[in-house]
Amino acid sequence: MSPSTAAAASSLRALPLHILVPLVASALAFIVAVFRRILRRPRPVYLLNYSCHLPDADRQCNLEVCEYFGLRSKRYTDETADFMRLIFRKSGLGQETFAPPFIFSGKFEKTLAFAIQEAEEGLFTVVSQLLAKSDVSPRDVSVLIVACSMFSPQPSLATMIVRRFKMRDDVKAYSFAGMGCSAGTVGIDMAARLLRVQRRPGYALVVVTENTSLNWYFGNNKHMLVTNCIFRVGSAAALITDVPARRADAKYELLRTLRTHHGADDAAYNAAVQMEDEDGGVGVALTKDLVRVAGAGLRSHIATLAPYVLPVSELLRFFKVNQNENVGRFKHSHCIFADVASIYTLTYPLRVEPITLVSIVSIDLLKIKTSPLLKMSWKLYVYRVAWAYSGGNPKAAAALVPDFQRAFEHMCIHSGGKAPARATLHRFGNTSSSLVFYELAYFEAKRRVRAGDRLWMLAFGTGFKACSVVWRALRDSGPDADNPWNGCAHRYPAALPVPTPRRQNYQPQPEQQQQLEEQKK
């Protein structure tokens, strides 16, 4: 025993008993708490691999195929055909998307047989490819989640996969229906939760698809025709595991998931609904309120996610605003965090009624009540801070938005429109819940994913619901042999059409301006 250790031991023995006993008890309690924390810590969850479905080339659906099908089916008026042609050209879809089998059958009838054929082609293909390249037997899968929003046969799609691949008897099989385009990320979230509550590590297979055969709309209601023009065939499968030994083989580690649901709001619930038209035709009606509802729901969802993923420097930037302007300072830490969250929510670019983060930071994290003063005046306070910081310029105040590129290197956002993920929308169309996996495959085909990169999957669907999944890359990723972008990734983004300039931004040349003035005279 070294002299220093002996001296420390002798000094401890010299302590009075009423001091030594609490000291030893505190040390033992600390050790027990540390071990308990380690034992109760959730096991890491990894994305072992994934696979996307690439249909045969004879299923490609361009504008000519759509026009031929619409005219030969004799179900649409001339006005309806012109409307669908306009939507197709403005949607951002290319000429190589894939349509369901009944489009090419020549029968012009949607039947259950065509729907089952479409489901089996997509589901069985991606599951076979995924299990083969992951070196996992179907009997090793303990959790199976299948998501298909618009098609729910009996037996279920999950049972079809269990029967086809002869999975074990105690597999926990689930089938999602009606979850919209967010079903893929919701399935990842549910699979991770189920794996973490199991006593033994295992594998979870998440399979997502959408079935357009039985949901093709034959009618003339313009609100229900949009789905015919933008939704296309696509499927994906992901293998999730919490087996520690498979970390070396995994591509990504799951960092965080977040789900929000605004179904209690009538406007959000009715923004996209499956219904019958006046002639009895069934389809999904997209209302004019969909854009507003989606914007408000996404702002609320992103505001909830921001404190957990943004770096401290971004949050401190708003704290600096508070300190510099000396407006509404509070001495309590929970109020400071609430100020930061409130500043974020009200300086987001699209100014719709914000959802405050006070409940997230003050209640969920710190378990402390929010100050009454903040409850009454947080809106006015934030506007004053943003206005003062920007020098009275509203546009500069709107620029006070956290930089999410400092939180994520890659973003896979569901392409419900032209702006996000234009390349994926152009090549494959809107494949619903599987679209975020096609976007991930695009990043890997371009060899952009590096070890340590953080990746954000964000999908949103009818209801209105949104789900985020945050990954961290464990290794550099390149295109697999079954990557759907093989052979065409080099054409993007150059293959994308050039956006048409808006009319209000158009400035005529001097010669054209002179001609216009002469015409006016």
From TrEMBL:
InterPro entries found in the cross-reference section: 3-ktacl-CoA_syn, ACP_syn_III_C, FAE1_typ3_polyketide_synth, Thiolase-like
Pathway recorded for this protein: Lipid metabolism; fatty acid biosynthesis
A GO CC term assigned to this protein in UniProt: membrane
Keyword Membrane: yes
CDD domains: CHS_like
Biased composition (Low complexity): 507-521
Occurrences of domain Beta-ketoacyl-[acyl-carrier-protein] synthase III C-terminal (ranges): 424-472
GO BP annotations listed: fatty acid biosynthetic process
Swiss-Prot/TrEMBL keywords: Acyltransferase, Membrane, Transferase, Transmembrane, Transmembrane helix
Domain spans labelled FAE: 39-319
EC nos: 2.3.1.-
Keyword Membrane: yes
Chain segments annotated as transmembrane: 15-35, 173-192
The organism's place on the tree of life at top rank: Eukaryota
Matches recorded under PANTHER family: 3-KETOACYL-COA SYNTHASE
Protein name listed in UniProt: 3-ketoacyl-CoA synthase
